[in-house]
Each structure stands twice: as structure tokens, then as C-alpha cells.
Request: fold
Amino acid sequence: MTNPFNTQQGAEIGERLNPLVAGSGATDRSRAPRTVQIADGRVLPTRRRRSFPRWFADTGWRHLIGVVMLVFASFPLLYVLSASLNPTGTLVGSNELFRVIDFSNYIELFQRPQQPYAAWFLNSLVIGLVTAAGTVFLGALAAYAFSRLRFTGRRVGLLTLLLVQMFPQLLGVVAIFLLMSGIGEIFPQVGLGTQSGLILVYLGGALGVNTYLMYGFFNTIPVSIDEAAKLDGASHAQIFFGIVLRLVAPILAVVGLLSFIGTFSEFVIASIMLTDPQTQTLAVGLFQFVSQETSRNWAIFSAGAVLAAIPVMALFLYLQKYIIGGLTAGSVK
Amino acid sequence: MKVTSRSFTITGALAMSAIVLAGCAAPASEPGTGGSGPEEPQFEGSLTVWVDSDRAGVLEDVAAAFEDERGVSVELITKEFGAIRDDFITQAPTGNGPDIIVGAHDWLGKLVQNGVVAPLELGDAAADFQQVAVTAMSYEGQTYGLPYSVENIALVRNVDIAPEAPATFDDLIAAGQAAVAEGAAEYPFLVGLDPAAADPYHLYPLQASFGAPVFEITADGTYDPTTLALGNEGGEAFAVKLREWGQAGILNTNISGDIAREEFVAGKSGYFLTGPWNIPAISEGGINYAIDPIPSAGGETATPFVGVQGFFISSESENQLAANEFLVNYIGTDEVQTALYEVGGRAPALLSAFEAAQSDADVAAFGAVGAEGVPMPNVPAMDVVWSDWGSTEVAIINGQGDPVELWRAMVESIQSKITG
Amino acid sequence: MSNTIPGAQQPLLAPPPAQLSGPRTATRSHAQTVRGLLIKIALLGVVNAIAVFAMFILVMRESWLIFAIAAVVTVIINVIYLRPGWLPAKYLAPGVFFLAVFQIFVVGYSGYIAFTNYGDGHNSTKESAIESIIANSLTRVPDSPTYRLTVVEQFGTFGFLVTDPDGQALLGTPDQPLEEVDAEEDSTGKAVSVGGWTSLGFGDLLANQGVVIDLSVPLSDDPNDGALRTPDGSSAYVYTSDLVYDEASDSFIDTTGGEVYVDGGDGAFVNDAGRELQPGWKIDVGFENFQRAFTNDDIRGPLLSVTLWTFAFAILSVASTFVLGLFLAIVFNAPHMRGKKIYRVIMVLPYAFPGFLSALVFLGLFNQQFGFFNQVLLGGASIPWLTDPWLAKFSILFVNLWLGFPYMFLICTGALQSIPEELSEAATVDGAKPFAVFRLIKFPLLLVSVAPLLISSFAFNFNNFNLIYMLTGGGPRDIEAGVDAGATDILITLVYKVAFGEGTGRDYGLASAFAILIFLIVATVSIVSFRQTKALEELN
Reply:
């Protein structure tokens, strides 16, 4: 693919017109500084130093919004951070934030034999990642079928996926307990008290609203790609695993992230399923610090919650390059 | 296919062992196997105990001792305390619930109503416990649980601001307002209230001092859940006082439990109506405090609700005898009750352990106040009472409507909900 | 090979991957097919092995219904994957399997409960209710002595060897009242064994505890004297019971007053005066719960205002979070912007903290006297954020916006990637204003993929019990109106108050009936709005 333009202005237009050339913010950094050679041989940097108003009109206002949102999103959480740094901290007792800075809560978090925070952390990571991977896989299979194949019951099936999850499950806990104790009698490895059993329950929700997100994205991938591959003799499985999945990488990353966050913070089912402190997840374990009105420990709970937010942020940071750069990266390579 | 067959073998082996285990455990409950005779004592079962994480550490040692001496293993399952009651009610009937749970005495009515708790005969050991604890663990004349702790609120006083214990609540208000006027304090009095639900539990001693308990107390000392006593003249007098205190700023629904604690620890008030759970923060904050009886507002003794925690046996347990042995002879001992007290800071229910704990002045002081107290009602109808009670108190304190009329409406509403 | 046919559903896309355009060798494709086949057979083998194993156990347990279901499912799975064709089934089967087991079952169970009286007081079977009533009615005779006990056994019959307070040894069985015997005593004077009987040690007691606990040895021939029972195998007490269960007439008889409690058909034993024995048991009640749901005055009174607010809350929540999330997704979708990674990560923060923790923080921030908003931001104002009916509504929406915008931001960021930049850029070059480009080109495309998620989000917020419950509990309640509904109550919280907060306590049957009715409302709204979107349209 050659760039038809050779002036700077042309290059910019070309970039904008063709995402293959433009790449994206996430891939920008890995590239060598872009330069454009103009007719007389001089080399100019593509990004000229622009005047402030122009910078502001183009990018600056975005930073302004970014800063506003930064305050909006993180401000209430400063209370949590402040409480976590104060040994006798309460969540909202005072507006004097960060009166005391003391990391003893973070240390104590890892020194309670009855509340093995490190184990919870690891459990949550493993359960979250496995569930997210399973959800993406099952969901992508289904989304592909709904998007590419025509069969009777397709519309009803799509609608059912949505409606099933709308049912207010007041008694979901009772039903899941009955179900899992029944399954546990046949397969103790996935019964009550096991993390694998919990993952299976979570995978029950793999088809659902996330499938729609993928379905919508699949629909934007031209069928002609499938057809071309078919002409080349690829089987449907090869097309799906080898080509289509790579093209929809951004949405797989988004669904994986959503599923991870959902699993990471899920409390109700996990508290029914996991009873041994060593097998419990963060959501279940942490809540024990504050569940009793008379022995609430907001300080340690806050410290635990602050640390628990890190994996979510780290995963998002990692996945951003797939989410943002996924489309182009997938088709270029 | 190698992988397939191996995983099948593993799965098979695991599941076969499960079948064998299940086969062993099940017949223990069937009378038919009784004939196998005493020669071969083969007890394969184990006790499953639900505890909250604070209690789990202590119970681990007891469980080990029980296994050593009695040959029955005890499996401790850590659950979040608030979830234990409801999970127990739904899981016990499936036959997969625990044998023993830790819980609060006011759950008892619900547990009995749902048929999930078995009576517990303390035998002669009953006399070894504080009377109020055993009464709390009883429902309709039957004892159900083994108590381990007793707790109640009292008046915590900042000696530097309020050197004298007030004789009446009016004295307290006067002294408190004087301190505010002098600039020694910011609040005449502190108690944690919820903006939507006030806190009938904390305000109850004041209400009781007007002679208005929740339910009529029958001759045998238990509550009659069908007859509300809230609505008597004392109750209405209390409602009028609530309005007065609300307008005078003595009670403030914006001061939540957390804020009240923070402000008291900051030395901004002379009086704080609270329980032993806030004492660690108060003493760490360097407050020079004393614990006093709650002064009467209406003339009668201001009796707080006493909360009792203990252990209950499941009616569906296949191991009732072992469970009974574990509770009465292991949890009910001086050692364990003391250990539970040390980890939770709640006064022990066992008299001998309670006496020993008196060496701690705070425990002694709260205990003295609790001796006047009555157990919080454990009838199932309490669930209905709390919500109306709290929201009415909020309205009265914040000056909406006529206090007496609101109070009457509340009594009517509760009454109609109880009778369905 | 052209992929540039424009169309609403099939936007422009970059040329397909290069590897596709080149000729592909047949051998490579063939090798991959063989490998795929092997993987498929191996996976199917594992599934079948697990299934056969499960069926084996089900046969052993004689669970025929579940066995039949398992067998049918296994056969279906094999047919799907072994038979050529049926492509949709091949792709859908794994997800649908999990969906059926873990979701449909749960929904079905909740639905079934609506037709029972399950709830507090009706928690288990009739058998266990009878057992509980019997156990609870046994009371120890006040001030009666403790008998020291040795449990003994003879030919499979268990008996009590007790030492009465006077030191006399007595032996009895459930069929044979206590009689004096000569027994061997230990150093404390406790009778420990008697000729012809074997004494049980603690291990033996445990092995037979089900029987021992139920042993009831009458003191004398007169049943009114009571019977000895043991809770622990080492001491026995005299118990009497006020209530006697008569199996023949299926009723309890109160021995003190002679009252009879019969099975009244409502899942409880009831006497003529209407007094019920606790506990009752679970029975099927048909449509009774639905009838109660429709005739309940506490629901009907505030129904209109609560329903309006429920819709307003759900719609405004979706709209506000979506608008903000989409706006931010677009703002930070700028290729040249530095630091947008950091902005993006910070904006996911509200999503990464436990929801109830955030709600509690906001509860504090909104505090009328001490909260940050009033005290710091507004310099000591006294705005009743959560206790004024309208402000409370606003506060709820504000908090929900904070909690919900990261989700919308994430899905919009993801969905935006499917819209090729050149579409809108080309239009920009043609002179269209940026907003017009967005409104006319990007937005409709985006909506196609996110509309179902908006509908789902609407349904979620329609039943967003936790937020309301944590923040205001449905309040502020107009205490003088005498209605239990507050200004921020939505249908599900109102249902909760009615089904769990009146009469006997939690009434799961009634709650499930309400849940089904609410589901019907939400489902109808969803299906109708679904029709409005193009999500279900046939493509290509």
C-alpha cells in the first residue's frame, strides 16, 4: 500500500482516510518518528509546533475534559484512600482527608491468618481471568453463529439471551445452592466449595448481553472475507479461529474486561459457593471486615479495596492496545 | 485418546471415593444400622460449623482438641456474619446445611419459625451462665442456644469535659449545653443516628425509662409478640420528648455512628451513648473516659437492650449428640469463653469467665449497666417493628407532624403488619 | 475481491488480511483439517466420558429423571458434532449448555416458587415440620433432677441405665418403663454396666447418635410422668410434651387443654381458633400469590407514582450514563492525544471499586450537615440532598451516573472501533460539520451494536434494588401519608417491603409472583423497543 500523497497535508489526509496507514494512538509509540520527505529533499517532522488555539481546538479541550473527569471519577474514592491510610479511619466521618498517612493497614492486611488477603487476591485473579477467557470464547462462538449463519430460531434465540438475564432473580441464590449441591454429589470437583464450580456458574452468564456486543461487532466485518477464505479451501473452524477472531479483537478485549470486572466484584454467588477462607475471593473476603456493625474495620477494608482495584486497572491498561489498535493491527499482520 | 482415558480415571476415582464416603455417612442416621453393635465404633461423620472470621481463630483450637479427645473432626466454615442467618434458613432444609452456627439471639424467633434450630438442653450448666443470656437464648419456654457473649450500650463520658455522672437525662442535657456554652464542647450529647432510620436500638433505653417497652412482657418474663406496649402513655410521652430533643439539637439525625464516634474521639462532646465496640477507638484517641449507667429521662430505669451471641444446633443435623457435646462441654468452658471474649471484646456469657473479665474496668462497667437490661426481643415480628419504629423517630426528631399522632400511627401500622 | 460495497450494515473496511489474497496450498489446509478433527474427537471423547460417568452414578442413585435428561443431552451433543452440517448448533451448543444449566434453571426455580407458599414459616417439608414441632414442644420438667446415664444395648435394642439422685440404679427402654436393677457402679456411684447389656462408649454413642437422641424412656406406666431423654449420652432429664402427634388423624393434640391442631390445607397445623403451630411447611398454592399481588393495598396505593418514578429512574439512568460514556469515548478516541491511556484508566476507577463501598461514601458526601458537598463545596449550606423528595431523586441519579458511566464508556469505546474512520473523515472533507458527521454517520452505526445493551441496561436499572436500598432505602418517606412507599422507591424495592416486611416475614412466594409481573413489564418494554432497533434485522 503506497501513500498517494507526498506533501505533509496530503499525508495527514491520507492518515485520516486510511486507518491502515494512520494506525492509532496505541501503536504510535512503537513506531519510529514519522517524517515526510518533500519534493526538495528536506525532511520535515509531520507534527509541526502549532499555535495554542489550534492545539486547544484539536486536543487541548480533550485534556480539559480529561482533568474534569479525573476529579469526578476519583474524588469520592479519595475518601477510601484516606481511610485506608488512617489506622482508626472511618469512611465518611470527616472531611479532613489524609490527616494521617500511615501504611500499617496495608501491612496488617497481609498478616491476618484468618483473613488470608494474599490468597483472596490470587483466587480472584485466577477465577476472574479464567471466567473472562471462557466468557469471551463461548460468547464469540455464539455471536459468530448469530451473525454469520441463518437458522430458524435465530431471532427468538437472540431475544431470549436478552430476556433471560432480565428476570429478577430474587431466589437465584437458593436455586444455585440446590443445583450445585446436586452437581457436587456427582462431581465433587465442581460442587459447592470449589472454585471450578464457581467458574462454571459464572460461565452460565457467558451468553447474554455481552454476546450482543460481539454480535454487533461481527456484523461489521464483511462477509466477503469469510467467503474469500472459503474459496481458498478454509474450513469454517479455520475461518472463525484464524481470521474472524483476530478481526474482532477489540470487542473481545472489551468483553473480556467487562467479564473480569464483573467476576472480580461478584459477591452473592461467590459467598454461597466458597466457604473456606483459603478459597474465597476478594469480594467475599473483604466484606467480612465490615459486615458486623459492631466490629467494622473500615481502615483495613479500604486498604483491601484500594489494592483490589489495581488488577482491574492493570488489565485495562494492558488491553487498551487491543481495544484501540485492534482493528488495524488485526488486519495488517 | 490417552488423555481422555486418564482424565476419566481421575474423575472416576474421585467420584467413587465420594460415593464410598456418602455411603458411609448416610446409614449413621438409619436405625437399621444400630444393630451393628458397640464393638466397632465407626463414626465417619464430622461436625460442620459456620462461624464468622473473628470467631474462627479461637474455634480452631477447640476443634482440634475436640478431634483429639472425642475423635470427631470439626470443619469450620467461615461465613460473613450477616449472611449466616438467611443462608442457614435456606440451606438447612436441603440436608446440606451445617450442624452448628454462630449467631445472635434475636435471630432465634426466625430460626424457630422456620424449624431449622434444635432445642439445646444445657442441663445443670444453665446455672453457670448469666441469667439474661440464657433467657435471651430461649423462645416460648424452650432453650435453643449456647450463649458466649453479652453486650449492651451505656453512657460513655469524657471526664475532662463532664466530670460528674449525670443523675437524669435532663441533668445531662443541662451539663452538656453548659459545656457547649463555655466552648468546652461542640455537642451537648452524641449518639449515632441514621438519617433514614434513626436508631431505635440506641434510643431504646430512653424510651424504656418512660415505661414503654416494645411488647408486653408476660408473667414468665418473655415477650408477648401479639401485644405492643409501644403505644402506651409512656410511649407517647417519649415521642413528645423526642421532638423536644430534636429541636434542641440534642438528637441530630445527620450525626451517623461514624461521625458521632469521630467527634467524640476528637473531644468535641462530653457524652456519647454507645457500646463497647467503640471503646478501642476512644481509648486510642486519648480520651479520658468513664462508663456510666444511662440516665433516666422518664423517671423509670433506662434499661438498654442486651444482645447475646451464641451457637445454635441445626434441627436437620445428623450429629446432634456430637454437636451437643461440642457446645456444652467445649464451647461452654471457661477457657473458650475467655478466649472468645479476648478476640471480640464482648463480655463472656459464662459467669466464671465473666467474673474473671471484671478485672477489665470497661467490661465491668458495661456489665453493670447490662445487668439492668432486658434481652432485645427475639420474636420474628421484630423485623416488622424496626423499620416503622425508626422512620417514625426520624420524622419526630426532624419536626415533621405532630409527635403523638405520628407515634399512634406507627403503633397502628406495626400492629396491622404483625397481625397480617 | 472487493469489499468496498458501501451499505449501512456493511461499512467500508480496509482490505482483508494479506494472507488471504495469496494462494493457499492444499496440503496445509488438509493438515489443519486433520488436526482440527483430532481435537474435535478428543474433546468429544472427554465430554462423553464425563457424561457416561455421571449417568452411571445417576443409575446407582436411581435418579431416573435426571438420568434421562443427561442421556438425551449427551446424544444431542454427539449428533451435533458428528453429523456434518448443523453449523449453528455447533457454535451455539457450548454456551447454550451453560446457559441452560446455570441460568434457565435458576429462572425456572424462581418462577416455580411463585406458585408455592415458600417463605418464613413455610421453609421445608411437612415431615421436618412435624419433627420440629415435636422437638420444640418437649420441655424439661422444671426443677427436675439430672439422672446420670449410661446408654446400654442388647440385641439391637437400646436402653437407659440411669442413676437417680438417690443413687439407685434404674434400667428402662422405650417400651419398658424404668425399673430398679442391680448394676455395677464406678467410684462416683454412677451405674456403668448391667448384666446382659453392653455399655456404649462415646464412640459407640456417636455411631448411633441418631437413635440415641430419639430414645425416650418413660419414667412409669403413666405417660403424664414424662420420659427420660438424653441430649449428650451421659446425662438424662425428664421431659414432658404438651403436644402429641397422632399419626392416624395427622394432627397434634395439646395435652393440657385438649385442643386439636389439624392440617388446615395452608401448610400448617391449625386449631379451631385459627392459631397455627410453628413451623409450617411448603405447599403449592396455585395462583394465590398472584391474586394477593393484584389485591395488595400497600402496592396499589402508591403504584402509579412508584411506577412512573421507576421508568423515569431507569430511562434517565441509561440516558445519562450513555451520553456521558459515549461523549468520553469520542473525546478520548483521538489518535494524537497524549496521556489518554491514563485518563481512560482513571475513568474505569468507579467501576473497579465495590459498589456498596462507593454508595456508602456518597451517603457521607451527601450528609446534610457534615457532608463534603454542603460543608466544603457549598460553604456550610444545609441542602437536604437525601431527605427532600426531589433532591433525593436527583442524588440517586447522580450517584448512578457516577457508578454507571464507566461501563458505557467501555462499550462505546469498543463499539467505536467497528466504525471506520474514513467514513466520517471523508464526509468531513466534503465539508460536513463534525457534529453532523457524528449524528448522521457514526451514531446510527454505533447504535446498532449498543442498542441491545442499552435495553439491557434499562432492565438492570429497572430492578436496581441495591442502589436504592443502599442510598435512601426508598426514602424519604412521607410519614404523615401513612403509606410505606418513599419518594425514591422503585417497584422492586416496594415489592421487597411488602413481600419481606409484613406479617410473618419474608414471603418468597409473593415476592416471586411480583418478580414475574415485573419481568412481564420489563420484557414487554424491551421487546417493543427492540423492534425499534435494527439489531434483529437480517443482514447482508
Observations:
- Residues 26-61 of chain C form the longest helix (36 residues).
- Chain C touches chain A through 128 residues (CB under 8 Å).
